[in-house]
């Protein structure tokens, strides 16, 4: 499998296309026949259709949180939230994807904004969704009737076909990011959608959702929940647990014990406790912490991912181009684009990706530059 | 899960979008800000992005084999086969997909044509491929060095990253259909490609490939092949076995035994013998036989599929529109479009689909009209 | 599958054995021939060999903790702990199993006792082991070099082939129960054993083991531990989490939410976080809490299990016979023996069983009396 | 994991048991207390209970087919077949297993004999069963109402809880071997049993069972049977397929292709076509063919197996002791006993084992002498 990396110069461009016939009236007639019959020849398309390695139209891009946040606030002033539009969410539109609201070919990423005392009405859809909170608090998301508090650092799930709405209990607005598989669902025509209650079904504001009270006990599984579920039953993965897990990994590394993925780089994956696998069938979510001064080796991966800086400063190098990062900044890594991250301070990064799609369909590949992996 | 079918009239169109603000200079400035920062709001996009049920851009369509075959023959006269273009394959381009060579959002289907004594050079790619032979013989496809005879009714595999080339041993041309996951791979940026030998690596013409000699013994597995493989190790699924399996199902039905999927409708799935599952991670393949006079109930399924008539005459009803079918005709069923087939004579149908994608990602749904399934 | 329960009167005893031939010299010669050639006929054995439903030789039995504890203390005075005998463990010997140290045909259960400042030397074996602590503290078990604190209510693992030893840091003795699959391993000849260090390899006494620091964060998985493991990587399941999980289930029940397995009966299973499945391939472990006054319906299950009372008082009815229960008491339920538990006070019960064996080999069956399950 | 093989001399015998206290009145009182309370100490039992490597009580043994067959014929004369005794089956009783009718701790193997026109009545049981036919023909086994022909070289299944009976259509007696998991079921108390019809429910004598007509088409799966089943749905694995599969492996080896498990040694495993895995949850079945002069390396495996010579002559070396083999001879290999087979002529061997138990519970280990595997 490694030869593809070594022979990347032997590509379509280096090979004469021996199948390009000379122009002739007969050929034109043939091509017109193709058009009339809804046909297209491979021999004129193959360079684009079947590249030597992934050539994504999506491009690497960084969005600044300060800019996103300001535009979201303005939306809060100008655009009401309610039925029909459903959410005051502003999607990151990859500059390479021709004006579609897709952060990558598979994923939607948006900043969602809810003003003081506002409610976003309930609905459900096949698309799998999560939220991640880089700052703020005061909103509860109600998932199938279970109110889930949203606070800084929390990762929250609304897997496909679960009713959900949000409401802001406070006098302050709140913004967070949403991630969904909308582009994948749209492209492959898999989406169903249903309206629910115009108000959320339960305005209670408990500290912990019922899903957490049932499921968030390490290594324990309720006997009433012994059937595996396609997606995680946990509504919220709390920051306190994520922070503690990463802290312990770095402490263990200090003690000379195996715990981190590479020197100075702690990381956890959010998982479905019924299987140990990804939280949802199409979306992987992880949290990474780099010690000050740590730089990850350049990696290429099949599939796309998005990072958001949660804490600290540093830089990302995407296809050789470096961009400085601050809290809240988001960047997308399209398929097979080399990326590495450098931590100035301790750097905390939330990450999500379409890796479950790639793995379940056996398209996953990783290459770490300078290695034969 | 059934409410979505019952409430299809309660859709986006029936709901006022309460989030459409009145035009104003401030709103225009906001929207310009979105554009400048590569952002797009959900509230103007949701009707298209998240329909109440799949609204595929792909449309149902029937291609006549007689037309395809004639154009393929003309291509044989005008277009050489060889390195660069790689294959004399003419892709079915769904009329709804804007001039892309995609039969559906996920799948490529093409007629491939190889003239007397011609060779299509070896290459390999991540994309999964199969061939199905509706007529003719005389070509061998060489898969990782194993020559595989291609004859009428055979279903042949070249799973991702296996080197393969073809050569025609005879003085007659041969045409068959190719199916691949090219659109899915292209859309999601997963494809790798590598050139191999300009000639096939083995011009032997055995009746049975080594893969068949090792693997095609019912219920038996070679101990040397006891590790499971991602895709089926079988190079060719021979018509004689398919025909016999279907014949037996109908005979068993005659004897009052459970064997068919529904009255008068025999069917088999081609499987990976190491797992009992689909032959490749992205493509399902099946063969269906209807007794004369049998009509299947109208079905909607998430995901797209393509049928080719192998033998007999009948009709297909796609979204309410009936088209007559003859040997070799192909038709595509986009996601969630109701379809049914009616057999005039005994009707033999080859079918392939993206069902493994839908099932592995848990987007699969089926609705049979007139039932609560 | 239910007919077996309804027709239990139609058993071997109700059927004349039509194959019992009259005695004759020829028959005797035949039977002698069998003996000489190491053969035995089925027709004389079948009633015993293949009963209508499981007829375990193991019998229900209750062991009193006060008695066990007293004998363990005496052993502490009389028997040194060390290499060769390896552990000061006293196995529960089911009265029906003919003097073998088996609590059931598959499982070993013992009280283990470690005096002040004593060390039990390191070794490893194929047999899977756990410990459960009904009282006391002060011992650390060192599993593959990782010191794991043992305290009241903790459930601790040493899966097959992990080196482990114990040491008591205090001036007080400590006793706990061990559970292993020794009888199963012995019967089926699967066991390997290896001596390790005569002292434990690390006398540190941390509050939390490295395994817990890496793995005990709910819903989070270290990226460094992303490969699944046959057994759970968690060294200790702490009482505080078990207690909290059960408390929350009962609170949720109070709130009218689904959370308990049946009214007044909260329960968790200890699981392998990499799979969501049982902690070890042969042993299931659970903890049950009954509200005061709760009585479980009589259940029969294929496979055997052992309970230990952790807190509270109540009674168990085993095959119709009731025995009062106090803290620390242990009882065994052989296969298919009906059992139910009644809580006087709130009753906390630790349970372990061979259910993973039964389920993986598809022998599992459950019958709840008075239902058609 | 290899150290256990290298350090086998460091075993219990080489270590002084430091826990054997000096005899004293107090110690005697303690041990009497243990007895009275149904307790047994580990420190007096561990050498036997937890050996350094498996020390099976079962011993290697060879049974001669000529002897078995003669005794079975005598049974046919003296013992009627019918309800109660159920089958005229004579079990191989391992000389090491104390007079139990067990060929190994997990498995039953028997010669079953059915005289001209006799019927063995229908019943069903949890125990999994197969038959293998080393000679003869003329019996049909009726499995859940499906008549299955039994002929030389066929391997036939009656998985747990399927009704089955047999009848001999001819004027000649027929004998074959039965394999079941009776000892495992008995030991672990998992067995249920139910009587069925006193006569078989269908006396038809078709060449192929319905199960074969539905399932025995290589690489094809009926859509009506798309749900996986715990055990194989195939009633009979015919000799013609087994023979052909092995013949092809040796031909491929002649052609320099990878196909055999080792030089001169072809082998297949019988599998469940719905999963590619073992035919039943507790029993593995294989067929091996050695070229003349081939000798397999000495292997030790955890778990026990039985071989029957189907054709040819050769020898088996069991724990260093060689025995000559002829057609029909059976031998048992207890756990971890080294075995190798030598072919004089071409040697065809049927084999069954408890390997699925070992693998599902992760006790499997193999050691090939002279290697580090």
TrEMBL record, chains A, B, C, D:
The keyword Ribosomal protein does not apply. GO terms for molecular function: oxidoreductase activity, acting on single donors with incorporation of molecular oxygen, incorporation of two atoms of oxygen. Residues 1-23 are annotated as: Disordered. Pfam families: Cupin_2. Coiled coil: none annotated. Residues 1-11 have a biased composition (Acidic residues). Residues 112-178, 289-346 form the Cupin type-2 domain. This is Cupin domain-containing protein. It comes from Xylanimonas allomyrinae.
């Amino acid at each position: 499998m490694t030869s593809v990396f070594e022979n990347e110069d032997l590509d379509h461009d280096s090979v004469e296309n021996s199948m390009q016939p000379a122009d002739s009236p007969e050929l034109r007639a043939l091509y017109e026949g193709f058009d009339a019959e809804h046909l297209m020849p491979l021999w004129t398309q193959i360079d684009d259709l079947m590249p030597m390695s992934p050539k994504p139209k999506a491009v690497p891009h960084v969005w600044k949180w300060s800019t996103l946040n300001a535009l979201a606030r303005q939306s809060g002033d100008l655009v009401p939230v309610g039925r029909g539009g459903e959410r005051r969410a502003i999607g990151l539109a990859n500059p390479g994807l021709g004006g579609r609201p897709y952060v990558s070919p598979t994923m939607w990423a948006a900043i969602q904004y809810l003003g003081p005392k506002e409610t976003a009405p309930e609905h459900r859809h096949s698309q799998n969704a999560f939220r991640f909170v880089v700052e703020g608090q005061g909103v509860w998301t109600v998932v199938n009737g279970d109110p889930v508090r949203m606070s800084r650092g929390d990762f929250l799930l609304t897997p496909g076909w679960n009713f959900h709405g949000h409401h802001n209990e406070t006098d302050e607005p709140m913004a967070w990011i949403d991630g969904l598989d909308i582009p994948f669902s749209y492209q492959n025509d898999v989406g169903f959608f249903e309206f629910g209650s115009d108000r959320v079904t339960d305005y209670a504001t408990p500290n912990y959702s019922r899903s957490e009270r049932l499921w968030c006990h390490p290594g324990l599984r309720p006997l009433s929940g012994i059937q595996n579920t396609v997606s995680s039953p946990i509504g919220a993965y709390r920051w306190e647990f994520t922070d503690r897990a990463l802290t312990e990994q770095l402490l263990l590394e200090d003690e000379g014990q195996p715990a981190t993925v590479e020197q100075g780089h702690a990381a956890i994956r959010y998982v479905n406790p019924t299987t140990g696998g990804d939280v949802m069938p199409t979306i992987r979510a992880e949290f990474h912490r780099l010690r000050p001064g740590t730089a990850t080796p350049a990696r290429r991966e099949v599939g796309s991912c998005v990072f958001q800086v949660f804490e600290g400063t540093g830089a990302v190098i995407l296809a050789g181009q470096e961009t400085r990062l601050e809290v809240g900044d988001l960047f997308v890594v399209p398929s097979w684009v080399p990326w590495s991250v450098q931590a100035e301070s301790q750097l905390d990064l939330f990450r999500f990706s379409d890796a479950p799609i790639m793995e379940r369909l056996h398209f996953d590949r990783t290459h770490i530059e300078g290695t034969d992996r």
